[in-house]
Write a structure and sequence with these properties.
The protein is α+β, with helices and mostly antiparallel strands. The protein has six helices and 13 strands. The protein starts with 8 loop residues before the first strand and ends with a helix.
């Protein structure tokens, strides 16, 4: 494989209807949102709610891997016809579908996710619903301006952070998908194949690995157990 710059983000060729997204969101704002489980990784309020999850459990906000059971729509999605249409746009197995809400004054600290780039056989998409100019999303030292209704791939194996310095919530629809022929056709039409599949050497210090394991142990999913096994192997290396 030729060495070249790694593609860390892409704006995908979708533009969803902002008004329809907001209308469906309004139906869900009063629902019981769950705080993100990685409480040491942010300050302020960062909450989410699952639209697809194992057994349709809307409180299961953990991202699965490809070995997890097929996800089912959660009950709150029933009356959100446009969100269902948006999600159906992505013709691939779903690993996670959540609404993520970052409150005013909140800050997601710089961090990396674990094996969540296209080179790992999966991908994370962001579709902003509510956002504003005082939200700063930084990925691999690039500030991404993601506008309502747009769709962005972000390789979160790279260091990223988010701050909301405004007076209103920032809410994104965040979808994790499993790579397949449909996604290959799309992604490789936008960036060189090698730039999407090339891996960056990635290491975590021992304390970070231990913290990740402690957080993952709170979840009983197949995906969480697989990640714990992989992280423990790194401790032994």
């Amino acid at each position: 494989m030729n060495q070249q710059a790694i593609t860390t983000y892409l704006q995908l060729p979708f533009q969803f209807n902002e008004e329809k997204l907001v209308a469906d969101l309004q139906r869900l704002l009063a629902t019981d949102w769950s705080p993100h489980f990685n409480t040491s990784g942010y300050t302020g309020s960062w909450n989410s709610i699952a639209l697809y999850a194992v057994d349709g459990d809307q409180k299961n906000i953990f991202a699965q891997n490809g070995d997890a059971p097929k996800l089912e729509p959660t009950p709150i999605l029933k009356n959100c016809d446009y969100l269902k249409k948006v999600i159906a746009t992505f013709e691939c197995p779903l690993l996670s579908v959540r609404l993520m809400k970052l409150a005013p004054g909140a800050f997601i600290k710089p961090h990396r996710d674990f094996e969540l780039g296209y080179e790992d056989g999966c991908f994370r998409l962001h579709i902003p619903i509510l956002t504003h100019s005082q939200v700063t999303f930084t990925l691999d030292d690039h500030k991404l301006e993601m506008l309502p209704g747009e769709c962005w791939y972000t390789n979160v194996n790279f260091v990223h952070s988010v701050s909301n310095e405004g007076l209103t919530d920032r809410i994104h629809l965040v979808i994790d998908g499993q790579r397949n022929q449909w996604s290959d056709d799309l992604f490789f039409s936008l960036a060189p194949r090698e730039s999407l599949l090339q891996k960056e050497p990635q290491t975590y210090d021992v304390e970070t690995i231990k913290k990740m394991i402690l957080e993952l142990e709170k979840h009983k999913s197949v995906g969480a157990q697989a990640l714990i096994k992989e992280l423990k192997s790194q401790l032994r290396d």
